[in-house]
Design a protein that fits this description.
Protein name: Ig-like domain-containing protein
Number of domains: 3
Strand content: over 45%
Number of helices: 1
Keywords: Membrane, Transmembrane, Transmembrane helix
Largest sheet: 8 strands, mixed
Organism: Mytilus coruscus (Sea mussel)
Distance between the termini: 142 Å
Transmembrane segments: 380-404
């Protein structure tokens, strides 16, 4: 951007604005003992820590609208005394410097300027919302100093006539409770409307939520109508000009509702006879819960009584009633029971209330010693029984197989014995078949002679 040109800066009431004067330092002038020195010589080198000036305006108001420019300050300019020594440099006071002859010292000057607003000089002590962001140093590097370089030096930049025009737009939300919030009620239709009183600075207003545009209006208003639920609580809504993004305002939506117990609460809470226990409940409520009551509704009914001592802590609830998946901010309520007796193991109703209404939740306190098997324990028990049945079946099958195998083995052994016996009988018959009986009568007395024939 060319020096000397006008720059327009836009801001919104209540915001913080930075006015930047780029390339403001046109030239630099240095004097030695009141005589201007030529900085074009190779003996000198000038360097600035910044080439621009920034002015910060905090909590901008309509009164800050107008033209701003910086200019050379009037009055005294601080300088530095330079001493040149051919031996060593003793300690010097403030605003004094010392250099060894032949060295190249660097003298540092703090630049200064004045600020003008609408042709009036700004008194930084009185205009407390206007600040110089930081200091700018001007360094004069002197090469190969000699005794003739001693003296009192003053260096300062010459400033260009650049002007910065601050244009302050006023944006707001209808029914805005303060600068940062707007209110709605759960289940009741509401309209969020952003408006501007300075439409001459506006191209078109847009409403955004979570970085996404949700409504586009004109240079005067933009609005959106919807029915809020508790997931909209603490949502951020931004109203911004579609061209000048510095013209913007943002509010947080506060959704009020009566207390609600989310489904993640446990309706069975357990304790042990004679021991203390802590009841825990999750709840969504805005404004926060004010009163809590508990009553017995089981076999021994007792009228509800107010709980004076309880702990309430903020918690992120996985509330899913409105297809919410990221969780919403709620509370956890802790109620301490000092000692459980036999009559405490029954059904209860807890009631939480705020100024918008009340909600109930039903639960049971059960004795740990009389609890039926939990689902996990039942699963474990079924697994053990299944393993036992499998082992038993395996043992029975193994036993049956063993018995069958044993019977088969015994049968095979009997067959072998029978076959051996038959073989022996066969051999015996074979031998007998080769035996010849012959009978001879001697003196009419029969005599039997047995002879054996060879096969």
């Amino acid at each position: 951007m060319l020096a000397g040109s006008d720059i327009s800066v836009y801001a919104t009431v209540g915001s913080t604005s930075i006015l930047t004067f780029p390339d403001i330092f046109k030239t630099t002038i240095c004097f030695q003992n009141g005589k201007q020195i030529s900085l074009s010589k190779s003996k000198y080198h000038i360097a600035l820590s910044k080439t621009f000036i920034e002015i910060k305006i905090i909590n901008v108001t309509a009164n800050d609208t107008g033209e701003y420019k910086v200019y050379d300050p009037l009055g005294f300019r601080p300088g530095l005394d330079l001493y040149v020594s051919n031996m060593s440099c003793p300690f010097r006071a403030r605003r004094q410097d010392c250099a060894i002859e032949g060295s190249s010292p660097m003298l540092t000057f703090l630049t200064d300027w004045s600020l003008c607003h609408s042709d009036n000089e700004v008194d930084f002590l009185k205009r407390k919302n206007i600040h110089k962001t930081d200091n700018i140093n001007l360094d004069l590097h002197i090469y190969n100093v000699t005794p003739t370089d001693e003296g009192y030096y003053i260096c300062f930049p010459r400033l260009s006539q650049t002007e910065v025009v601050l244009k302050v737009a006023k944006l707001g939300f209808i029914n805005q409770t303060d600068m940062k919030t707007i209110g709605g009620q759960e289940g009741r239709e509401m309209t969020i409307t952003c408006y501007s009183d300075t439409e001459q600075y506006i191209t078109a207003l847009q409403l955004e939520s979570n970085g996404t545009g949700i409504a586009l209006g004109d240079n005067q208003t933009v609005d959106i109508t919807f029915i809020p639920d508790r997931t909209d609580h603490l949502s951020m809504y931004k109203c911004v000009d579609i061209i000048q993004s510095a013209i913007t305002i943002e509010v947080q939506l506060i959704v009020t509702c009566l207390p609600v117990f989310p489904p993640e609460n446990r309706n069975v809470q357990t304790g042990q006879l004679g021991q203390s226990m802590t009841l825990s409940f999750y709840i969504y409520s805005y404004p926060p819960v004010e009163d809590i009551f508990i009553e017995q509704i089981g076999r021994k009914q007792i009228k509800r009584k107010k709980i004076d001592n309880f702990i309430i802590m903020t918690s992120i609830l996985s509330y899913t009633e409105f297809a919410n998946v990221v969780g919403i901010e709620g509370y956890e309520i802790l109620i301490e029971i000092e000692k459980l007796d036999i009559d405490d193991f029954q059904s209860y109703r807890i009631t939480a209330s705020n100024r918008f209404g009340e909600s109930n939740y039903y639960f049971v306190i059960m004795d740990n010693e009389r609890l039926p098997l939990s689902k996990s324990k039942r699963t474990y028990f079924v697994i053990l029984c299944s393993v036992a049945v499998i082992l038993l079946v395996y043992i029975i099958i193994s036993h049956v197989c063993f018995c069958v195998k044993h019977d088969i083995t015994m049968g095979q052994r009997n067959n072998h014995v029978s076959e051996d016996h038959n073989d022996q009988t066969y051999d015996l018959k074979k031998v007998q078949s080769h035996t010849v009986l012959s009978t001879t009568y001697v003196n009419r007395t029969p005599t039997t002679i047995m002879t054996e024939s060879t096969p």
